[in-house]
Amino acid sequence: MSVRERLRGVLSRLGPRRPARRELLVGLVVAPLAIAGPAPEACADPVFPAAGALGLTPPAGMSVSRRFAGFEHPAGASIILVEMPPEAWDQINGRFTPEALAATGFRVKGGAETLPVAGGEGFVLRGTQPANGLTYAKWVAVVRGAPGTGLVTVQVPEKAARLVPAAAVEAALRTIAFRPKAGLTDQVAALPYTVGDMAGYRPAAVFAGSSLLLTEGPKDVDPEREQPVIVVAPSLGQAPVPSGAEVAVARRLLASQKDFADVKVTDEARSSRGGAVVVRLRGTGTDTKSGRALGVTQTMVFDGKRYLRVLGFADAGRTDALDRADRVAASVAMR
């Protein structure tokens, strides 16, 4: 995957949406998040999520999340930290405008303002965004330092405005800092799930502390998408899928995948794993970039208020790669 495609993935997963809508890697705002445990004591030093190179000093009452790279509050406020390559800075600079972000539902107030960052630079946009009947105050900060580019998204529902006041958010944004980037092995070890069977694939990248990109082949960056790819992406929000709607949700997500056109489901299976519902789809599609015929497999595990999505694709003739992607999906277990 190219940097641009990874960035598009970032802009697809953090928006305040229900699971029935498109989701690949990571986006701009998430739905209310789960409680992660007791809040850390207030401190002057930045707090870095496990294996993360991007951190900050969170507002009082916010704790390090166990589901994603960032912090969360029991009242539904969240801070999500997304790390990207250095070259993403130039791409973001031209795209993060009030007009461009309006299409995501983010109503920016004013324009971008410079944000001081130790050893680097950044800017921040402020505004509001509606989601699932609620209105969130929202901040999006884009920063860069020696390890790369960072995207920091803060959302605070109206009901939590007194618990996480705007002044505390502004103060936290001014503590954003970088540290040396952890190795890929450490990043994988810090994910909120394990992969028991790589089935010939290897880790290529971790996004937002929650999504894993696996590939087969020598390239870590594959802009032509010539190598088989698997993306493991858990949901970030708590928008449960109604019982009986799991297959329809899985089909809609696969059909709306921007990387594919003309998606056709050729096989469907519904089963259970413990108390969770598992939906596996096999299908075909066309690579929107190259026009090549693709084979696609998607496994979704629906478990209460969360779900896990494992998406694999390869050239249409690589049924072996898709079979092994299904092995990977069957081996994923939440911690």
Q: How does this model look, in words?
A:
This protein is of the alpha+beta class and 335 residues long. The protein contains seven helices and 19 strands. The strands form four sheets. Strands 2, 3, 4, 5, 6, 7, 8 and 9 form an eight-stranded antiparallel sheet that branches. Strand 8 (134-145) and strand 9 (148-157) form a beta hairpin. Residues 1-43 have low confidence and may be disordered.
What attributes does this structure have?
37% strand; disordered N terminus; 7-stranded antiparallel β-sheet; globular; alpha+beta; 335 residues; 18% helix; 8-stranded antiparallel β-sheet
The number of helical segments is 7
> CA-to-CA gap between the ends?
27 Å
Uncertain runs with pLDDT below 50, 5 residues or more?
A: 1-43
**What is the share of helical residues?**
10-25%
- Report the portion of residues in β strands: 35-45%
Brief digest:
18% of the residues lie in helices and 37% in strands. With 335 residues, the chain is of the alpha+beta class.
Topology:
Layout lengths: L2 H11 L40 E2 L7 E2 L5 E3 L5 E7 L3 H8 L2 H5 L4 E2 L4 E2 L6 E11 L2 E12 L2 E10 L8 H8 L3 E2 L5 H6 L3 E3 L6 E6 L3 E5 L13 E6 L11 H10 L4 E14 L2 E12 L5 E11 L2 E10 L3 H13 E3 L1
Antiparallel strand pairs: 1-10, 2-3, 3-4, 4-9, 5-7, 6-7, 7-8, 8-9, 11-19, 12-13, 13-14, 14-18, 15-16, 16-17, 17-18
